UniProtKB/TrEMBL annotation:
Top-level taxon in the UniProt lineage: Bacteria
Protein name: DUF3298 domain-containing protein
Residues covered by the DUF3298 domain: 184-257
Keyword Signal: yes
Keywords: Signal
The UniProt record lists the keyword Signal: yes
Database matches in InterPro entries: DUF3298, PdaC/RsiV-like_sf
UniProt signal peptide: 1-17
Organism this protein belongs to: Chryseobacterium artocarpi
Length: 274
């Protein structure tokens, strides 16, 4: 349950949950976020709902998906909606219908087994929230951040992030090898070297606790959870992935200068890296 990777697959993360519903208040919405830049249109759909379960528990579900009316390549769309199992209709109507079905599945799953909440002892509110956010779209590289947050009892909730960059020229997800040929062991060394370049969330009586002091691993893997801008390549790690929960999620930058000599020539040209 404490695996943040599982949180990013919310469609299956709560399958085991179960409760008995007494009343349901549902608030489906069609939230639109039209953005037009060089004819690239981004829209969105969202659903929300809450349910009273037994005498001591209420649960809330919310989820938002982006809609890309101009994208038609099925393989690309499958990759963009990688976490949405069984999704085949990528239209706004299809995505809204899918979210409504996922919400209903979540509530039904909460009905099936009262053992999960029968001995709560006090009133609680559990939830499942997921979101897609367009972070950038430049040089035909589209960066989407997927986030999810959940609470199903215990000391604290769980949350996590997934970063994906899509090459809109080639209609596919960008891989690390498309950016740099640097061997993994050298990338790992740079990640370890740069881990404290971003401020962590942990603190104690003496003040801020460095990210490096919260590490749970001997080596920081160069994962596929990356994105970039005109200055750096960034690796994003969710809680528990490399550090203790108190450190929060960690973003580690590696500058283009540090990757000099290993950058893919096509990538350099498109990103205008000198």
């Amino acid at each position: 349950m404490k695996n943040t990777v599982a949180i990013l697959a919310l469609s299956s993360f709560f399958v085991f949950s179960a409760c008995k519903k007494k009343e349901t208040v549902e608030t489906p919405t069609h939230k639109t976020e039209n953005q037009k830049s060089d004819e690239f249109i981004v829209d969105s759909v969202k659903t929300e709902g809450s349910t009273k379960v037994g005498d001591s528990l209420s649960v809330t579900f919310s989820s938002k998906l982006l809609v890309f009316p101009g994208l038609k390549d099925k393989a690309l769309l499958d990759s963009i909606y990688f976490n949405e199992k069984g999704l085949s209709d990528f239209s706004k109507t299809g995505l809204q219908k899918y979210l409504e079905e996922e919400k209903n599945k979540y509530f039904i799953s909460m009905e099936k087994d009262d053992e999960l909440y029968s001995d709560l002892g006090h009133v609680q509110e559990w939830f499942s929230h997921s979101n897609m956010k367009l972070k950038s779209n430049a040089n035909d590289y589209m960066h989407i951040q997927y986030s999810a947050e959940a609470y199903i009892g215990g000391a604290h909730g769980e949350y996590g992030f997934s970063e994906r960059v899509f090459d809109l020229k080639k209609n596919r997800k960008l891989e690390l090898k498309d950016i740099t040929s640097m061997p993994n062991n050298k990338l790992e060394a740079l990640l370890m070297k740069n881990i404290d370049k971003t401020k962590g969330n942990a603190s104690d009586a003496d003040g801020e606790v460095k990210n490096s002091e919260m590490l749970l691993v001997e080596k920081i893997p160069a994962s596929d959870n990356f994105y970039f801008d005109d200055k750096n390549l960034y690796f994003h790690y969710s809680p528990y992935e490399i550090t203790a929960y108190a450190a929060g999620d960690i973003v580690i930058p590696i500058s283009w200068e540090e990757l000099k000599g290993t950058l893919n020539e096509e990538f350099k040209e498109r990103m205008k890296i000198k």
